[in-house]
Amino acid sequence: MPIRRMPSNESATPWFVLGEALLLSLATAVVLFAAGQALAAESCPAGLNHQFKRLQDGKSVSLCDYRGKVLLVVNTASKCGFTPQFEGLERVFGRYEKQGLVVLGFPSADFGGQELESNAEIADFCRLTYAVDFPMFEKSSVKGEAANPLFRDLAQRTGSAPRWNFHKYLIDRRGERVCSLSAPASALNRLNCWPRWSRCWRLLAAARAEPRPLIRQGTIVNAPEKLLLPDTQALPDARGLAINKVGVKGLRYPVVVRSGKPGVPQHTVADLAMYVGLPPQVKGTHMSRFVEILELHREPIDRWSFQQMFADMLDHLDAKSGYLEMRFPYFIRKTAPVSGVESLLDYEAALIAEGESEDQIRLTMELSAPVTSLCPCSKKISDYGAHNQRSRITLRAEVWGEVSLEELARIAEDEA
Description:
The protein folds into 2 domains: 3-204, Glutaredoxin; 243-414, Urate Oxidase, CATH 3.10.270. Helix content is 24%, strand content 28%. The protein has helices at residues 26-35, 85-96, 119-130, 149-158, 185-189, 195-204, 288-296, 303-316, 376-381, 405-414; strands spanning 3-5, 51-53, 60-62, 70-76, 101-107, 168-171, 178-181, 214-216, 243-257, 266-278, 321-335, 342-355, 361-374, 388-398. A 6-stranded antiparallel β-sheet has the order 9-10-11-12-13-14. Strands 5-4-6-7 form a 4-stranded mixed β-sheet, sandwiched between helices. A hairpin with a 6-residue loop joins strand 6 and strand 7 (178-181). Helix 7 runs antiparallel to helix 8 (303-316).
């Protein structure tokens, strides 16, 4: 249905649309903000006054060349569970480049050593695997004292350094306002505004003149100010009462688990428990946001992506602590000892993440394995024909390195 713009008045400053929701994607909103302003700048913003060598050809480039643009800065890796984010980043860049949005990629091996050795290998991988066309720069460090000057500056300005690959910084066209974002891939792939991106956009757009309201054509509004209901949930809570635990449990959801066999993810159904602890000034949370976290993490789940899901849950809900448990049936192909016939054996698996902050996450893997052993009583009283007994062995391991569910199953069966 057509929409026409009505003259504004002093009391009608916010956006509102009658009868339908107005959804803005992050990229659209930011680019419209940039495109609607004069982009010329005589001097280079201090935050962009850095030189880097371009990955594609080794040519030295000044980030001052990108002044007047909205910049999405990302630390990338070629062997990470989040590497498919290249697809979403390239889609955003291709769609909005002409309107003033630029994606800048900085390969790094800081997290798990998940980047290729040479710049030539990285360039070939990005070009041949994901047809990356947005500017990429040579491999460098992005965390700590060794971080390249851009990431060191962005971490200082936002108070948030990258905790894993594909951390994102969104910089406004003047290089003045910066948002730090750890949104997962699908937030870019679907070009949707999830709450953290939306908050970032509002920060970047804070200096923009108030837009005029949009009214559906033919609609008569006698008292438009009465349509603007306060968001009571979002108002600060002055009672000083923290919420120690709020969330959902018994939530069944289809998930994809990265198996121990490379390139063969396993589809299963998980039973989830998701809780957060909220600071005193927060009244509560919307339960639908827990489901949104699952939707934003549709990539195959391993220990790294599960840990990132937990960190995003805390960030998404402004939580001070959290608990995330995912239980699911997991199948491993086994060979019968006598006949040699192969079949699938089911195990009960679980991933559990908990912590007081995003930087203090405890990750536990659990596996319950069905095993058989010779019955000792039967063996004692029988000359032959002693029978086996069936049981289950459950292993719980606090994980610090690379451990697969197949490895836990092997340990359990060897100890049976």
